[in-house]
């Protein structure tokens, strides 16, 4: 192999790596629609063209290739600089940007005054690339200070090393020497930059998702709390307003001897009381969770004709209101599902407190299905309630083993 072909092959490999880096940033721009990714894609694209111009100049030694090299270098520097400013809009003040604009003009004039000399052209190109690469590293370091990120730290260090490495060619080696070292160094830095950029985007997405999840959890808790308050208000109005009106009407009808109408009013009054109880049982507010659960299980057994057992502790201890409401609603939904879908003959509700956690289990001896139950509004609702309290919900069903729901809620995270 001709020795002169080795530097050209390495420059080609380096150009290929830079092109891949440009494609990575172009793909990120298409997915993220952030302008600085498009700027970096263009910068690495022109950097690859610059490497091609260097290869052509080494072969032909004609001035047009050096001119093209200077133009590609200028475009690379300009796009790197603009992408860095887009990434961190507050990185530079207007005065600093003005000085950098003057420096760019000086570089442009100086580079083309010495365009016929490879040493002068290489020196001006290296200074420009070194400056904007170091600036890009500083921008990532500044970003890392505001938003702690290992990827931003790696990118800051990589661009800093790359900026210093650009000075190797004109200052430390004559024309044509050190190409092997430079190519391998550039390829290493290109690879690190590509991987770190991808991890930076993934990290930002993960942080955005975490923030979004936190916001949704807060919204869920607010909606559930608002829903319970609305249920309490409607239940109170039904009981106090509609219930009293119907009671007065029934008494009037009884006094007038209109028994048929009185029975209809009494039936409507019973339905309103049942609806009020379903919306918000008064014993949950007046007596507490344990009596409310006993009454609900007894009422379920009476209405559904399914044998129901309840195993509750003698004393549950201090329990936050949100937890009490959640436990009550979970049992209510579980018993409703047993009555509608399980074809069970017996159901057991068990509640116990252990190691700072509240464990609720609802088990029936129904037919089961062997597959996880299809999510519906009620099941999704209790999942959201338990998740809002940092708890867990597990549902187990088998073909002939019935259905079991188990919810665990940590009490220490919810002070009374």
Secondary-structure map with pairings?
Elements: H1 5-32, H2 35-60, H3 63-87, H4 94-113, H5 118-146, H6 150-165, H7 168-172, H8 179-255, H9 259-279, H10 282-286, H11 289-304, E1 307-311, H12 321-342, E2 346-354, E3 357-364, H13 377-388, E4 392-397, E5 403-410
Parallel strand pairs: 1-2
Antiparallel strand pairs: 2-3, 3-5, 4-5
Helix pairs in contact: 1-2, 1-8, 2-3, 3-5, 4-5, 5-6, 6-8, 8-9, 8-13, 11-12, 12-13
Quickly list its features.
single chain; 416 residues; alpha+beta; Heat Shock Protein 90; five-stranded mixed beta sheet; 9% strand
Description of the molecule:
By secondary structure, the chain is of the alpha+beta class. It folds into 2 domains: 5-215; 286-416, Heat Shock Protein 90 (2-Layer Sandwich). 73% of the residues lie in helices and 9% in strands. The protein has 13 helices and 5 strands. The chain has helices at residues 5-32, 35-60, 63-87, 94-113, 118-146, 150-165, 168-172, 179-255, 259-279, 282-286, 289-304, 321-342, 377-388; strands spanning 307-311, 346-354, 357-364, 392-397, 403-410. The chain has a 5-stranded mixed beta sheet, with helices on one face. The protein is elongated, with a radius of gyration of 37 Å.
């Amino acid at each position: 192999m001709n020795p002169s072909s080795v530097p050209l092959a390495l420059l080609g490999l380096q150009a290929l790596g830079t092109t891949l880096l440009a494609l990575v940033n172009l793909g990120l721009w298409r997915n993220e629609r952030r302008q600085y990714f498009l700027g970096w894609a263009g910068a690495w694209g022109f950097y690859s063209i610059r490497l091609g111009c260097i290869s052509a100049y080494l072969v032909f030694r004609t001035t047009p290739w050096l001119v093209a090299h200077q133009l590609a270098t200028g475009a690379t520097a300009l796009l790197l600089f603009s992408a860095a400013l887009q990434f961190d809009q507050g990185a530079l003040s207007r005065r600093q940007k003005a000085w950098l604009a003057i420096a760019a003009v000086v570089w442009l004039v100086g580079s083309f005054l010495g365009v016929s000399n490879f040493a002068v052209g290489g020196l001006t190109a290296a200074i420009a690339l070194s400056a904007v690469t170091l600036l890009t590293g500083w921008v990532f370091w500044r970003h890392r200070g505001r938003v702690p990120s290992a990827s931003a730290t790696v990118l800051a260090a990589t661009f800093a090393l790359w900026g210093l490495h650009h000075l190797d060619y004109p200052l430390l080696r004559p024309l044509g020497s050190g190409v092997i070292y430079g190519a391998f160094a550039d390829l290493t830095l290109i690879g690190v930059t590509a991987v770190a950029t991808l991890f930076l985007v993934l990290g930002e997405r993960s942080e955005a998702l975490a923030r979004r999840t936190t916001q949704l959890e807060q919204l869920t808790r607010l909606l559930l709390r608002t829903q319970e308050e609305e249920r309490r208000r409607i239940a109170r109005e039904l009981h106090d307003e509609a219930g009293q009106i119907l009671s007065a009407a029934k008494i009037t009808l009884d006094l007038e001897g209109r028994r048929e109408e009185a029975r209809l009013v009494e039936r409507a009054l019973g339905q309103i009381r049942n609806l009020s109880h379903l919306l918000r049982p008064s014993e949950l507010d007046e007596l507490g969770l344990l009596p409310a659960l006993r009454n609900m299980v007894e009422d379920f057994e009476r209405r559904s004709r399914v044998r129901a057992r309840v195993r509750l502790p003698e004393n549950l201890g201090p329990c936050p209101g949100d937890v009490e409401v959640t436990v009550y609603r979970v049992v209510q939904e579980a018993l409703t599902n047993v009555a509608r879908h399980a074809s069970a003959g017996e159901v057991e509700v068990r509640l116990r407190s252990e190691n700072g956690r509240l464990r609720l289990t609802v088990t029936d001896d129904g037919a089961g299905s062997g597959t996880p139950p299809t999510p519906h509004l009620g099941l999704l609702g209790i999942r959201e309630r338990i998740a809002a309290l940092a708890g867990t919900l597990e549902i187990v069903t088998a073909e002939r083993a019935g259905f079991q729901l188990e919810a665990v809620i940590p009490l220490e995270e919810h002070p009374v």
